Amino acid sequence: xxxxxxxxxxxxxxxxxxxxxxxxxxxxxxxxxxxxxxxxxxxxxxxxxxxxxxxxxxxxxxxxxxxxxxxxxxxxxxxxxxxxxxxxxxxxxxxxxxxxxxxxxxxxxxxxxxxxxxxxxxxxxxxxxxxxxxxxxxxxxxxxxxxxxxxxxxxxxxxxxxxxxxxxxxxxxxxxxxxxxxxxxxxxxxxxxxxxxxxxxxxxxxxxxxxxxxxxxxxxxxxxxxxxxxxxxxxxxxxxxxxxxxxxxxxxxxxxxxxxxxxxxxxxxxxxxxxxxxxxxxxxxxxxxxxxxxxxxxxxxxxxxxxxxxxxxxxxxxxxxxxxxxxxxxxxxx
Length: 334
Prior knowledge:
This protein is mostly helical. The chain has eleven helices and two strands. The protein has a two-stranded antiparallel sheet with strand order 1-2.
């Protein structure tokens, strides 16, 4: 897709305006209701759909297909981020009315960092086509590692561990012992220190970089157009805050999500390797965008269904066990 500098500027201005509107609406700290989160989740998805359809309307059929495939992939991978966001909120004991502000700024930091990653990735791909082999192998490895971690998580309780950058920032500036509303810095004994609110914002923004190591190569496996990569990531991330409040309570029920994401990453990894072989002159079949889009959607649907079925069986087993324990207790008392 041939993107002019003017279109880039207009797109960035448009996205910035949407972020500003989102910030204005959520400027007052409050507890986000399920209804509010649901409405805004639909709004963000509708905006992404309109953008994709807009590309189709202006004759960019391939770009439209790549955007939808990229958006769905990034959205599904970003849901996995929510598990970590929940751990971060618990780790820092973030008051419920401040969580929406934390996510808004944290996601904004993540978007800026991802833009840097995308620019670097596009530059590397443009000059070194063999990097597709590395991206493909990395995604296949990540898919296998994700399966291993999913199995381990079934037996262990997850806990957020601060990264080195965050620890160094805390040591350098110091951190207040409690939250001070929406303030990011305060004066403590004459010294300017961070508030816990600033720390948790940085935690969410910098932690997303780790997820970008997976998601950026994944979307480059679907499209090599930096414009599509950037916009798909932007729309996927900007609706993440509302999605957090909408499905926060459902995350634990998506027990097979990691397995589904591993299948998607493995699939895109294979697609990248095939593309690299094709670029090297080897006659191998390439996976088209419609096939990729259909496969990704099918995996997500199947994963959701099997997760809900498995969760229902677990709840039934737990209820049966509780009934047996109650019966046993009653017989002992008798």
